[in-house]
TrEMBL record:
PANTHER family: MU-LIKE PROPHAGE FLUMU PROTEIN C. It comes from Neobacillus rhizophilus. Signal peptide: none annotated. The lineage of its organism: Bacteria, Bacillati, Bacillota, Bacilli, Bacillales. Coiled coil: none annotated. This is Mor transcription activator domain-containing protein.
């Protein structure tokens, strides 16, 4: 997380108002909800996991066992079960 000096980005009147509530502390200002992105969308990680899970489901449908998939993908059998029995396609 990048920190900024408030006096460099905020008007003086706003700083004075904020100082009524907090002084000399770190204050986190969250993004607006409309700016939120789901985990992994920027890095591509979400897409990689979605493709992996689709491959796991297809292998399961084709006859691979839970244990075989767990060994192949280095996941626990419980995690494989969550993937293959979820309704996400």
């Amino acid at each position: 997380m990048k920190y900024m000096n408030a006096s460099k980005v905020l008007p003086e009147k706003l700083i004075v108002e904020i100082q009524k509530y907090i002084q000399g502390e770190t204050l986190y200002i969250p993004k607006q909800e409309t700016e939120y992105r789901k985990w992994g969308t920027s890095s591509g990680g979400r897409g990689l996991l979605d493709r992996r899970n689709t491959d796991i489901r297809n292998s399961f449908i084709s006859g691979s066992s839970i244990q075989q998939l767990a060994d192949e993908y280095y996941l626990s059998p419980e995690t494989i079960k969550k993937i293959v029995y979820s309704h996400k396609k």
